[in-house]
Amino acid sequence: MAAPPAQPKGRFSPSSLGVPVLRRRGPDRGGAAPAPVLSVAEHRVAVLIVTYNSAGLLADLFRSLADGLVGVSWNLTIADNASSDGTVAALKELAPEANIVEMGRNAGYAAGINAAASAAGPRTALLVLNPDVRLAPGCVAELLTHLSPGTGLVVPQLADGQSRLVVSMRREPTVLRAWGDTLLGARRAGRIPLLGEVVTSPASYQRPAVTDWAEGSTLLIGAECWNRCAPWDEGFFLYSEETDFALRARDAGYVTRYVPTARATHLEGGSGQSPPLWTLLTLNRVRLFRLRHGRMSTAAYWAALVCREASRALLGKRTSKCALKALVSPRRLREPRGPESVRI
Fold it and tell me: Cα–Cα distance between 3 and 22 in angstroms, integer?
């Protein structure tokens, strides 16, 4: 996928520009009156961004918003987790119309999303964006056309900084899928729905789909779903919070839709290369599974992750060595989740 065209540098303004009105009729819910179906022009989108030492990412992000949100009425709220690199000053310079919530501490991603949502005001939908996302033109209007009754979350097709497809759709974590990943590898296991959590078949990303959850860098959430299922669980601090929210939304009757005709670029963070971040990601997978399952299933799931990280640690991967050490530490598994947990 080609990257969005460069835009002139400078400030942006979230003003509506008008697009064709598109209407979709959603399913009737058990005889109840269907929820109103809004046109793109009738929506009001609260754009929510959480920053932490993100100054270098902001100019390109903001340049993409005007085209990415063309035809949509929107406002911008940013929660900053006590950045020390001049992020807040950059926000005030680049986005003077934004509502900036200064958290005063590194409270975590979920806490930032919750704080930004609380400060954002009336809306029909919320758009959660990572600072390293770049929206393609018309992305959000396309997502909105798929926000039909019964749909809680809508996600676009993602590419990385080299325009390569990001495999962003996920299936619900299960013991069998954890062992499939361990024994076959995520890419091979992902081609078999029963055995893989990550949807890895490129063909699956060429057509619309309903998925259990999706990576949360670019996530449109309907206000009805948010009001019923929020807040995000701040106990995760970082990683698994979007998984938890999407699965709780599904439990409440809301699906997550993947829309390949909506496009965005996600430069992607460093969790795969950072031992502390990979460790937190792995521990939070166990914590999330434990919230939704009993002891025996959780033990089997934990054992699969231990075997996975052990096999990769034997190959010399520093990330897996760190994660394995944490997985076999009762203290690490029980510790409160916060910024202090991001350590080796």
Answer: 26
Phi/psi of residue 242, nearest 5 degrees: -70, -35
All residues at 6 or more sequence positions from 91 whose CB lies less than 8 Å from its CB, including other chains: 51, 58, 78, 80, 98, 100
d(CA 123, CA 77): 12
Domain that includes residue 290, residue range: 275-341
CATH classification at residue 77: 3.90.550.60
- Per residue in 133-147, pLDDT tens? 999 999 999 999 999
**Can you tell me whether residue 9 is helix, strand or coil?**
coil
Instruction: Enter the pTM of the model.
Output: 0.87
What lies within 8 Å, CB to CB, of 333 at 6+ separation is 283, 286, 287, 326, 327
Q: Is 198 domain-assigned?
A: no
Distance between alpha carbon 113 and the CA centroid of its chain, in Å? 11
Q: Are 258 and 220 in contact (CB under 8 A)?
A: no
